[in-house]
Write a structure and sequence with these properties.
By secondary structure, this protein is mostly beta strands. Helices cover 11% and strands 37% of the residues.
């Protein structure tokens, strides 16, 4: 009798936990982390006024947004890496769902290039919705290689359930400052919200 009561209680608990998980929004946790931004100095060879190669220090910037939207406005629809002229190439970019399944992989491309970013379309042709993880390996013009790991979100604008209260923590591609940085003062251009 005691075993039967234990198993019945355990089964009820599992059923309730399962129902609770189903009620969670696929957008839970979206924009819950900061976008990836990096700014640091690197040394490169540049020509001085007399035409001599000299070591020069330049600022390197990287911006990876944490939200893309599917509203077909030509902006903010593609997940990509932004930078100024200090990146030699993106070595690789991987996007994975919350279970670790690979959604997108691309190698050897330039930053700021929408044709090489991920449009949140899965292999079966459907739009991916919700949070995803990414890993981006970047080679800078001074030969340094850095890896950026983060979390972002793909939102289908025709879908309901995005936690609007999280929007102040969301940063989209159109907030790129043109030199590899994030400018949160730039308008949040999207027809979604």
């Amino acid at each position: 009798m005691r075993n039967t009561l234990f198993f019945a209680t355990a089964l009820l608990f599992l059923s309730l936990a399962s129902c609770k998980d189903k009620s969670k929004s696929i957008y839970e946790g979206c924009c819950g982390t900061e976008p990836t931004t990096a700014s640091f100095f690197i040394t490169v060879k540049l020509l001085d006024a007399q035409g001599n190669l000299v070591d020069s220090t330049v600022e390197a910037n990287v911006y990876i947004p944490n939200l893309i939207t599917n509203d077909n406005d030509g902006e903010n629809d593609i997940f990509l890496v932004f930078s100024g002229t200090t990146i030699n190439k993106i070595i690789s970019m991987d996007c994975l769902d919350k279970d670790g399944t690979l959604l997108f992989h691309r190698e050897k491309f330039q930053p700021n290039d929408q044709s090489n970013g991920w449009n949140a379309i899965k292999a079966d042709g459907t739009f991916y919705q919700g949070s995803f993880n990414y890993e981006v390996k970047v080679e800078f013009i001074d030969g340094q290689i850095k890896t950026y790991i983060g979390k972002a979100c793909a939102y289908n604008c025709s879908d309901e359930g995005f936690p609007i209260d999280q929007l102040p923590n969301c940063f989209i591609p159109s907030q790129h400052d043109g030199d590899g940085g994030l400018d949160p003062s730039l308008p949040f251009h999207t027809e979604c919200f």
